[in-house]
Write a structure and sequence with these properties.
about 55% helix, 12 helices, about 15% strand, alpha/beta
Length: about 260
């Protein structure tokens, strides 16, 4: 999958089929690989945290998850395939991995959620090799962290899905990947909660209209108000600044 940059952050837009084929290629490589999603919150954090921006540029797959990123890209003249949401991506990806014989380990989210997500993924894709699960409420240094790594290394999954929340999951991967025997590290955020049914699914009409962020804001206003209301404002201010610069250079028509 070809990469490009959006406001200084790497993205690798592609279709579901392209994502799945690339996943197999990454698993077969000699070196470890990294998959991360591109959403407004992540890009805003990357502008503040140089190490996270470097992680985006180092990642092998940066798929477009957020509706805000997709809209911002269109305003800047990009022509991208439909975004791949975390809530939707798991089911076809799981079916593909079951057919290919790829193995998984699910790490993160509240206690019990990863196990429930694994059960539902197996029901949807019989034969899917989910080797183990562990919640994300463990000490990220010291004996608890070492025990988690030891369990993963005993099982040696092809893909380690890490759902600790951004930017903690990226920091954990960077601090530990060299000692973890997994081929691909896939950051999934709250993905297990979606797959387990712990978070209600956004109505299709809202998702298709790019309003999934509003649905989540209504569910968790206290936790997400700053992320979505302030964060979206900051992001689109930068998009409009970039659009004006492009308009002045005649690369885009003036709005």
């Amino acid at each position: 999958m070809e990469s490009t940059e959006l406001l200084g952050i790497k993205i690798t837009p592609g279709t579901m089929e392209e994502f799945c084929r690339e996943l197999t290629r990454l698993i077969a490589r000699e070196r470890q690989s990294f998959i991360i999603s591109a959403n407004v919150y992540g890009i805003n954090l990357a502008w503040q945290l140089p190490w996270l921006a470097a992680f985006y540029h180092r990642a092998d797959l940066v798929y477009v998850d957020g509706a805000g990123v997709a809209l911002g890209a269109r305003l800047l003249g990009y022509r991208l395939p439909p975004r791949l949401t975390m809530a939707d991506l798991a089911w076809p990806a799981a079916a593909y991995m079951a057919r290919q014989g790829h193995s998984l380990y699910l790490l993160g989210n509240p206690p019990g959620v990863a196990a429930q997500a694994a059960e539902r993924l197996r029901l949807a894709s019989p034969g899917l090799k989910i080797l183990g699960t562990h919640h994300g409420f463990f000490q990220k240094e010291g004996p608890e962290n070492e025990a988690v790594i030891a369990e993963i290394n005993h099982l040696r999954p092809d893909v380690l899905m890490v759902g600790l929340g951004m930017p903690l999951e990226q920091r954990w991967i960077l601090d530990n990947y060299a000692r973890v025997e997994a081929r691909v590290f896939w950051n999934v955020g709250a993905g297990f909660q979606y797959w387990a049914g712990a978070i209600p699914r956004c109505p299709r009409w809202m998702a298709d209209s790019g309003l999934e962020w509003l649905f989540r804001l209504l569910l968790e206003p206290r936790r997400l108000a700053k992320r979505y209301l302030w964060g979206n404002t900051v992001f689109f201010f930068k998009v409009l600044q970039a659009r004006r610069r492009l308009a002045r250079s005649a690369r885009l028509p003036r709005p």
